[in-house]
Amino acid sequence: MQPAQEAHNRSVPRSARGPISGASRAVASLGPALVVLASIAGVTALACLAVPPGAEGWLAARGVEVSDRVGVLAVGAGGGALALLAGLALRNRARVLHRVRAALLAFDAGERSMGALEIAPQNRVAAAWNGLVAWRGEESDRADASGLLAQPGEAASDGGERFSDLLWHGLIIIDEQLVVRYANGAAAVFLRAKRDSLVGSDARVMIKDARVVSAIKNASETGSRQKQVFDVGSVSDVESGVLRYSVRASSREGNQRVLVVIEDVTQQRVSEEVQHAFVAQAAHELRTPLTNIRLYIEQLIEEDLDGAERGRALNVLNQESSRLDRIVADMLSIAEIQSGRMNVNTGDVRIQQIYEELEADYAQAASHKRLTLTFDLPPKFPVIRGDREKISIVLHNLLGNAVKYTQPGGVVRVSVREQGDRLVTDVIDTGIGISEDDLGRIFERFARGRDSRVEAEPGTGLGLALARDIARLHGGEITARSELDAGSTFSFWLPVANAASAKAA
Amino acid sequence: MQIDVERQGAVTILRPRGPLVQKDADALRQKGLDAIGGALGRVVIDAAQVAYLDSSGIEALLDLADELANAGQVLKLCGVNETVREVFEVTETDSQFEHFEDVPAAVRSFL
Questions:
Q1: Most exposed among A60, A471, B72, B90, judged by the fewest C-beta atoms under 10 Å?
Q2: In chain A, where does the domain assigned CATH 3.30.450.20 lie?
Q3: Residue ranges per structural domain of chain B
């Protein structure tokens, strides 16, 4: 606090520096007999007072020692001391206001130095004024540094250019003639132009979108501070993406400028679309098993079924509810992975059990479809470190797909082998196969083969995305080879225990 | 060296498999520049399968980082193993990149 006070004392002209601090020191040192010239709003009163018993404590509490009493010479003895102090305070206030006024006049005359505009911080008003001066100073420093509103022909300061180059949003400043005055690196990239050619060129030529151009013209003509926002481009064209243009007029010292900020919002938009698709797809996927369940429950309630029919109905109910369960589990897992909250409960997994469960789970579905389902399992399994549930999801998804997309009479084979430090599972089918185009995207979320035979089967397009995410979370991988109409092979490997723990270490 | 290119949403993921050395570094640089130009810089390098890298590997990554820096962006790496991280630290290039644990985290950073 002290250095600051000294600094502004230096900055305030000597004439403006009041005797006030000297006076208050004198008041304090006068002790019992206070004889002071007090001027209040042009009225000068001479007072010599006695301190009444009541005021004694009041003064003492404020550090003024009252040890003696002096006879009354003039005006209103009782509250005299209080009136005097109040008068001092008022005078103090008047001085501060006077200095604020002087500073305002100096500002009007062109003074911009913070030092010259600050005043002695005698009270809260003065402190607030100084705060305002300091704050405006910082603001204008910032504006200068970024060179946002540089004069025509006047280069933005070197440091400023470099700073706005670090900005990941495109920034373009356009003048009244709609000429680009400034563009940062990101803007050049977004507009696919060389930065040198961008500056000095006509904004209407550089910015292709008609809505943005007309907003720029409008902002330039009206000087409207209303921000206008346009999303240009479409999600389907990932190369150019969706760019969000924000247009707003800005002016400083009479120079009208239009600021255009460009953001790349492609990924946000993709994410929104994926979420919408997810909800739509999820509703659809949940409805199919639900419809079946309701149908069979109605049958069970309303119709007089014999033992065999009842058994069949219950069987369907069982299958459909476990299908519901799997869909919900898939969705939850995908949500977990997407939000980065996927918990992998790592432990030693006795993976042999999972294969045994698979065999039991799919035997019926395979025989129902007249598929030959075989398991080539090694005599002995290595220990796998990982999450049993998650690994089970992967194998269920791979085998489920193989069974789903292989026509009656086909063959599905699960072959497991230890290869070096990996446990490799191949799921091989003689099914409908995957075209080369689709093969590139089947692991994407919600991606399903563009094949009528795929579309005929229910599916969320989540299974493989989830399976691959889980494989990678375990330090493994899933790859696919396929030939249309000939069949597919999905290879899923996991690191075996010692290799996995070495990776985790 | 095999470099898989995968797209997640609007983000391109480059997944080099194997050590990033010598000519492999050139291949990564080229694919990286293509990806940056093609997707307005929405690029992630998944280094989970990169066991180690040499100086040309670092140079390739720094070149890509420089290219992105023109647009105020930073090269996003994920799945970097301990060995590679140590190389970054020793060469004091660690701060040139943005690091993520895995691909989903890196992709989310574009939101």
A1: B90
A2: 158-264
A3: 2-105
Q: What does the alpha-carbon distance between residue B38 and residue A238 come to, in Å, rounded to a whole number?
A: 8
Give the Cα-Cα-Cα angle A183, A185, A189 (nearest 5 degrees). Answer: 100
Q: Token digits for A75?
A: 């005006």
- Beta bridge partners, A77, equal none
Taking contacts as CB-CB distances below 8 angstroms, the residues of chain B near A445 are 8
From the list B9, B48, B73, the residue facing A274 with the nearest CB is: B9
Give the pLDDT band (50/70/90) at residue A39.
Answer: very low
**CATH number of this structure's domain B2-105:** 3.30.750.24
SS3 per residue for A82-95: HHHHHHHHHHHHHH
ipTM of the complex: 0.79
CB contact under 8 A, A238 and B41: no
CA B26 to chain A, closest CA, distance in angstroms equals: 23
Identity of the residue in B10, B104, B108 whose CB atom sits nearest the CB atom of A238: B10
Number of Cβ pairs < 8 A linking chain A and chain B? 76
- Token readout for A324 is 């519901």
CA–CA gap between residue A134 and residue A403 (Å, rounded): 74
How far is Cα A434 from Cα A490, in angstroms, rounded to an integer?
11
Residues in chain B: 111
* CATH class belonging to A345-505: alpha beta
CATH of the domain spanning A158-264: 3.30.450.20
CA distance A30 to A371: 112
Give the up-direction half-sphere exposure of residue A359: CA atoms within 13 A in the CB hemisphere: 13
Task: Give dist(CA A418, CA A113) in Å, integer.
Answer: 78
Taking only the tens place, the pLDDT of each residue in A281-318 is: 778 778 888 998 999 999 899 888 888 888 988 988 99
Encode pLDDT of B1-48 as tens digits: 788 888 887 889 999 988 888 888 888 999 999 888 888 888 999 998
Q: Tell me which residue of A214, A173, A170 sits closest to A193, measured CA to CA.
A: A170
Chain B residues touching residue A338 (CB < 8 angstroms) = 104, 108
Task: Tell me if B104 and A340 make a contact (CB, 8 A cut-off).
Answer: yes
Residues of chain A with CATH 1.10.287.130: 266-342
User: b/e map of A284-307 (b: 16 or more CB within 10 Å)?
Assistant: ebbeebeebbeebeebeeeeeeee
Q: What share of chain A is helix, strand, coil (3-state, %, to 5)?
A: 50, 20, 30
Which residue is it, tokens 């990678």? A472
Lowest-pLDDT range of A73-87, A136-150, A312-326, A354-368: A136-150
β strands within chain B, DSSP E: 2-8, 11-17, 43-46, 75-78, 97-100
The model's pTM: 0.52
CA distance A436 to chain B (A): 15
